């Protein structure tokens, strides 16, 4: 944390415009808040993050009493959710837009973390499933007038189906060969979106996509149901927050299940896992499809948020960005992926006025991270304990 602060200190003398929090906080307060949030994630990781989700209340209470030096996880969880939920009430439109963008990438990073961090498969074309989910909702919304909440699982299923089609043919490959196949699949998807004029409107994209909405009781003329569109950014913020919470819980439950242990066995040694009876082909295919479903969910929300999609939003650079978040935060770590998304999305926005210098600092920090902490900022707790043992 100290060397990161030293690298960034020349940037702290000027207050960038647009990211005001209630009009009173300057850059120093933002750095302090960012460091506090990093320490918050570190405490979660140190204490066994999110274990209260699946453990009985009595077990959690016992662990809290035994760990007197660590703040109880329930308190951390309530504080974290409360701060994130209050963000739209304390910030302006620009900060809300940055926060929404960060949470979209958190969903993408957690989905790719299933493939790369848990199952150990290098996927360079993950952004293809993001595009499949976005275009699925765009087509269903514009041509069939379907609701966002109905299209959300359909978009996830469409992305999972695309992953099954390519994964069934390529999951027996390993290493660089699998990475090349996934990269080729992403380029094929982008070319199809760019050239299928009758369905995707080609490079012009699809416009007129409906925003999320919900039904509310109207008592003006009796009791009727009225459909309300969530067009305010502060309301859309809570939709992606709901998706992020769902993704975190789902990934955590998968990671600490028998399926998750099978994925980790494949990641450590695929041959040994197959000898021990793990169906490696089907488990790898399941991981690939599961990660794609989370990408499809994020893509559907992206289409609803922007109300416009085009092939330019789903290039290889986006895949590289999501993969960088997973590697930087710590492969297999949920808090690490969240921290990686914040580092690669929020920090460049804070230092937008220093565009050239901020990319220099970003490249230097990434290089130092890979040299001195290749396991990531917040590696998984199980890995850390294994290393100590």
UniProtKB/TrEMBL annotation:
It comes from the Bacteria. GO terms for molecular function: branched-chain amino acid transmembrane transporter activity. One of its GO terms (cellular component) is plasma membrane. The keyword DNA repair does not apply. The chain crosses the membrane at residues 26-45, 66-88, 94-116, 123-140, 146-165, 235-254, 285-304, 324-347, 354-372. InterPro entries: ABC_transp_permease, LivM-like. It is a multi-pass membrane protein. It is found in: Cell membrane. Keywords: Cell membrane, Membrane, Transmembrane, Transmembrane helix. The keyword Repeat does not apply. This is Branched-chain amino acid transport system permease protein.
């Amino acid at each position: 944390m100290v060397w990161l602060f030293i690298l960034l200190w020349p940037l702290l003398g000027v207050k960038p415009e647009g990211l005001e929090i209630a009009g009173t906080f300057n850059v120093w307060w933002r750095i302090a808040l960012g460091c506090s949030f990093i320490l918050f994630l570190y405490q979660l990781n140190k204490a066994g993050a999110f274990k209260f989700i699946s453990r009985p209340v009595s077990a959690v209470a016992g662990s809290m009493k035994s760990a007197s030096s660590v703040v109880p996880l329930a308190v951390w969880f309530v504080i974290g959710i409360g701060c994130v939920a209050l963000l739209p009430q304390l910030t302006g439109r620009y900060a809300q837009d940055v926060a929404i963008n960060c949470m979209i990438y958190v969903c993408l990073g957690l989905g790719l973390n299933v493939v790369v961090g848990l199952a150990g498969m290098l996927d360079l074309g993950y952004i293809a499933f993001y595009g499949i989910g976005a275009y699925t909702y765009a087509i269903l919304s514009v041509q069939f007038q379907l609701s966002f909440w109905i299209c959300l699982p359909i978009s996830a299923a469409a992305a999972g189906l695309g992953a099954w089609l390519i994964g069934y043919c390529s999951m027996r490959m390993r290493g660089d060969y699998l990475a090349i196949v996934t990269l080729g699949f992403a380029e094929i998807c982008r070319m199809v979106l760019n050239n299928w004029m009758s369905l995707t409107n080609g490079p012009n994209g699809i416009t007129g996509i409906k925003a999320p909405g919900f039904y509310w009781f109207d008592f003006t003329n009796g009791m009727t149901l009225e459909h309300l569109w969530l067009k305010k950014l502060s309301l859309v913020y809570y939709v992606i927050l709901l998706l992020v919470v769902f993704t975190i819980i789902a990934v955590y439950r998968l990671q600490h299940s028998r399926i998750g242990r099978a994925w980790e066995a494949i990641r450590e040694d695929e041959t040994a896992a197959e000898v021990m009876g793990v169906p490696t082909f089907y488990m790898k295919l399941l991981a690939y499809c599961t990660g794609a479903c989370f990408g499809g969910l994020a893509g559907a929300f992206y289409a609803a948020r922007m109300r416009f999609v085009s092939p330019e939003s789903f290039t290889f650079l986006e895949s590289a960005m999501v993969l960088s978040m997973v590697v930087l935060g710590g492969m297999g770590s949920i808090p690490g992926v969240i921290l990686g998304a914040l580092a690669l999305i929020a920090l460049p926005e804070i230092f937008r006025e220093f565009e050239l210098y901020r990319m220099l600092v970003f490249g230097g920090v990434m290089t130092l991270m890979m040299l001195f902490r290749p396991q990531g900022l917040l590696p998984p707790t199980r890995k850390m304990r294994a290393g100590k043992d």
